[in-house]
Amino acid sequence: MIDFTAVADCAAARHRLHARRPKRHARTCDASGKHRFRDHREAIEALHRAGNSRKCASERGVASPRREVRSYLCKSCHGWHLTSQGQRR
To answer: Is residue 89 domain-resident?
Structure first.
């Protein structure tokens, strides 16, 4: 059975995040094709959104496609990207 209060809480959290996020054109890295974040703070905020998406999906009993676990500075575009790969050694 689905707990609809958890679903409503997740929907409300998504709405609050969208309201705070500035609208901007999507930027991608020419070398990797990944989304380019202008600074580390912006990349970390996206990581938190990915984590919230996974948590909400888990509470609903469905799988989330979001697998990002860390950010890194790209040598090609000098922007920040997200990756699902663990910490590099």
So the answer is: no
